[in-house]
């Protein structure tokens, strides 16, 4: 019998017995263990490309509690490409502005997307169960159009056996066990990954000596839709820091810093939580409005990752591969970037377009990204939770300066918010033959910009793209058997020119299926494009 580990908030894929449970093991191109945001996004992306994907999850839907709530512009761009982004933005709480306070005074505010010409906002706040539901809605729509995606709820992977050319999984269900085989197994089964543990793989890093209380509060309130963060809050019981975010359905996320040596059961007592929430609301509103406690939890900062994200035909993604503290919204957002990076590479390898070695570049690029996220998360945690008198003195000196002088504000670290990683200098990143803007350099994700009645990123879908900005490129259908689309923009908008040309009159970009720039040039040369394509496929350039 498959044990229930947590309460389900939304039933998304109820258990149904399938014929494979009474047959010899069926081999699938890709089996994904874990039906959270990363596993669902990977399955959807693969299915839309025509590569079959089977998802196994030990529950029947999203778990109770808001969990991850801050989803970044890059995540929304990815979701848009897969048909789920509009529903997320329509339901979510859009925000671009954050404010930082020290005690009772505001130090400064920031705008994460001050420029115009983007389809999506810097962030939305959306409870994770909704995020998962919208992905499943997009999967159901894709299945109706023939996408080869299958989700099996209440199917728990209990053992994994790796072979030279495939992986075998033992799976338990309410009707008993059976086996599944996969050319590639993708473990998206969370920070406590059973697959990782079953393979005896390490998950090393740092656990920070502090605890934070999450309280999701349902109430009518006039707070603006902004991110508010306090150092040394003016309300009792908050510890060294507190955070306030608005979510859909009149739910407000409040985080309180509790310290290290705590009685968790005592701190989760509803009356004790209400005392903290009452104190916060009274200082901000002058009164204590009526509210309900929707969900509460205590978490500890952890920054850890696997040494290698690929182990033969088993590949790890999301929290199974890397874990960071919640401040900075780098967990789920980096996991979605894992899925997008991996999907096109699996698709190309399984279709014989690229060698198996291309999957090694997934590990290299996303390990690089994990190190960047862990570095930022660790620095934020060290700033927010100083553990010595000297570090606290330095932190408070920075805060005092930031209230008076703009130069000190970049030193204030309440969580460097998630941005996509740039794969500078990595193996698939090609040459920069254009004296163009840094934001669109090789290795970076393509910045969005207005294009006609829509936006550029909507035109950069469907495989590799040769983009010509300020001029025209010859129509090229393929290079060395690899499909290639050409998008020419002879008269770019001001925003597109600023983000892709700078002072250059024309630019040519080779763009990967995950919308990262491979290489760019000031002139079109088919040999340059062919070499860059070979590099992007993990081949030795000729």
Descriptive account of the structure:
With 542 residues, this protein is an alpha+beta fold. Helices cover 28% and strands 29% of the residues. Strands 2, 3, 10, 11, 12, 13, 19 and 20 form an 8-stranded mixed β-sheet that branches. Strands 8-7-15-16-17-14-18-21 form an 8-stranded mixed β-sheet, with helices on both faces. A 6-stranded mixed β-sheet has the order 22-29-28-25-27-26, with helices on both faces. The longest helix is centred in the C-terminal third of the chain and has 27 residues, at 358-384. The radius of gyration is 24 Å and the shape is globular. The model has no long low-confidence stretch (mean pLDDT 92).
Report strand %.
25-35%
Q: What's the N-to-C terminus distance?
A: 55 Å
Structural class based on helices, strands and sheet pairing: alpha+beta
Q: Write down the overall mean pLDDT.
A: 92
Approximate helicity band: 25-40%
Largest sheet: 8 strands, mixed
User: How big is the Rg?
Assistant: 24 Å
Strands, count:
29
Q: What sort of overall outline do the alpha carbons produce when their principal axes are compared?
A: globular
Q: What's the number of helices?
A: 12
Low-confidence stretches: none
List the helices and strands and how they pair.
Elements: E1 8-11, E2 26-33, H1 37-49, E3 53-56, E4 61-63, E5 70-72, H2 73-81, H3 85-91, E6 93-95, E7 97-102, E8 105-111, E9 123-125, H4 128-144, E10 149-152, E11 156-162, E12 167-172, E13 178-187, H5 194-198, E14 204-218, E15 227-231, E16 241-247, E17 251-259, H6 264-267, H7 270-285, E18 292-305, E19 310-311, E20 314-316, E21 322-323, H8 331-350, H9 358-384, H10 389-402, E22 432-433, E23 450-451, E24 454-455, E25 464-469, E26 478-479, E27 482-489, H11 494-500, E28 507-511, E29 517-521, H12 526-536
Parallel strand pairs: 2-3, 2-13, 3-10, 7-15, 13-20, 22-29, 25-27
Antiparallel strand pairs: 1-4, 5-9, 6-9, 7-8, 11-12, 12-13, 14-17, 14-18, 15-16, 16-17, 18-21, 19-20, 23-24, 25-28, 26-27, 28-29
């Amino acid at each position: 019998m498959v044990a229930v580990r947590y309460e389900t908030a939304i039933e998304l894929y109820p258990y149904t017995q399938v014929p494979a449970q009474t047959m010899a093991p069926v081999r699938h191109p890709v089996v994904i263990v874990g039906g959270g945001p990363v596993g669902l996004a990977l399955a959807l992306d693969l299915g839309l490309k025509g590569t079959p994907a089977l998802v196994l999850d030990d529950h029947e839907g999203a778990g109770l509690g808001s969990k991850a709530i801050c989803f970044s512009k890059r995540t929304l761009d990815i979701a848009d490409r897969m048909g789920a982004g509009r529903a997320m933005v329509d339901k979510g709480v859009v925000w671009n502005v954050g404010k930082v306070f020290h005690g009772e005074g505001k130090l400064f505010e920031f705008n994460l997307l001050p420029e115009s010409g983007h389809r999506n906002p810097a962030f939305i706040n959306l409870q994770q169960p909704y995020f998962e539901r919208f992905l499943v809605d997009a999967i159901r729509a894709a299945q109706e159009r023939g996408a080869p995606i299958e989700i099996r709820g209440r199917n728990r992977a209990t053992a994994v056996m790796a072979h030279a050319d495939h992986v075998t999984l033992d799976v338990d269900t309410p009707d008993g066990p059976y086996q599944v085989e996969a050319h590639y197994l993708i473990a998206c089964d969370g920070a406590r990954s059973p697959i990782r543990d079953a393979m005896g793989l390490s998950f090393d890093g740092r656990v920070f000596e502090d605890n934070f209380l999450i309280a999701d509060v349902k109430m009518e309130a006039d707070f603006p839709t902004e991110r508010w963060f306090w150092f040394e809050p003016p309300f009792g019981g908050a510890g060294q820091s507190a955070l306030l975010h608005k979510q859909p359905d009149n739910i407000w996320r409040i985080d309180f810093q509790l310290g290290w040596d705590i009685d968790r059961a005592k701190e989760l007592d509803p009356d004790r939580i209400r005392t903290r929430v009452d104190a916060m609301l009274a200082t901000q509103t002058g009164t204590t409005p009526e509210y309900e406690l929707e969900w509460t939890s205590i978490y500890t900062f952890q920054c850890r990752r696997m040494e290698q994200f690929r182990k033969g035909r088993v590949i790890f993604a999301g929290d199974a591969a890397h874990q960071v503290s919640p401040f900075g919204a780098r967990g789920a957002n980096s996991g979605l970037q894992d899925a997008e990076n991996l999907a096109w590479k699996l698709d190309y390898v399984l279709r014989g377009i690229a060698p198996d070695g291309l999957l090694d570049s997934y590990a290299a690029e996303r390990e690089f990204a994990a190190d960047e996220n862990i570095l930022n998360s660790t620095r934020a945690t060290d700033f927010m939770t100083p553990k010595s008198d000297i570090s606290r003195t330095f932190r408070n000196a920075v805060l005092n300066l930031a209230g008076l002088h703009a130069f000190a504000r970049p030193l204030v670290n309440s969580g460097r918010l998630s941005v996509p990683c740039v794969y500078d200098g990595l193996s698939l990143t090609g040459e920069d033959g254009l004296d163009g803007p840094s934001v669109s350099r090789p290795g970076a994700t393509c910045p969005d910009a207005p294009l006609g009645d829509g936006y550029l990123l909507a035109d950069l879908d469907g495989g590799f793209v040769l983009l010509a900005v300020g001029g025209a490129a010859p129509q090229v259908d393929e290079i060395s058997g690899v499909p290639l689309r050409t998008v020419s923009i002879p008269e770019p908008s001001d925003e597109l020119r600023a983000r892709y040309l700078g002072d250059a009159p024309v630019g040519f970009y080779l763009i990967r299926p995950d919308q990262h720039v491979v290489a760019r040039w000031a002139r079109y040369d088919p040999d340059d494009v062919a070499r860059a394509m070979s590099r992007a496929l993990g081949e030795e350039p000729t």
